[in-house]
Amino acid sequence: MAVVAEEWSIEGDELTPSMKLKRRVVEHKYAAEIAAFYQDEATATK
Q1: Which sequence spans correspond to the domains of the chain?
Q2: CA–CA separation, 7 vs 13, rounded Å?
Q3: Which residues contact 44 (CB under 8 A, 6 or more apart)?
Q4: 1-46 tens-digit pLDDT
Q5: Do residues 14 and 22 make contact, with C-beta atoms less than 8 angstroms apart?
Q6: What is the tens place of the pLDDT at every residue in 10-22?
Q7: Are the C-beta atoms of 9 and 15 separated by less than 8 Å?
Q8: Measured CA angle at 12 (ends 9, 15), to 5 deg
Q9: Which distant-in-sequence residues (6+ apart) come within 8 Å of 28 by Cβ?
Q10: How far apart are CA 46 and CA 42, in angstroms?
Q11: What radius of gyration, in Å, describes the C-alpha atoms of the chain?
């Protein structure tokens, strides 16, 4: 789990005017953090 320091907003382009999350924008903006979630699984030896 990760917590981001920035508050998501319409002005920041993470939310629509109806306050819905723009998933593609957030995924692109936080790609490194998202990749870190899966890094251990991708590099684990079985």
Answers
A1: 8-46
A2: 11
A3: none
A4: 888 899 999 999 999 999 999 999 999 999 999 998 888 766 666 5
A5: yes
A6: 999 999 999 999 9
A7: yes
A8: 45
A9: none
A10: 11
A11: 14
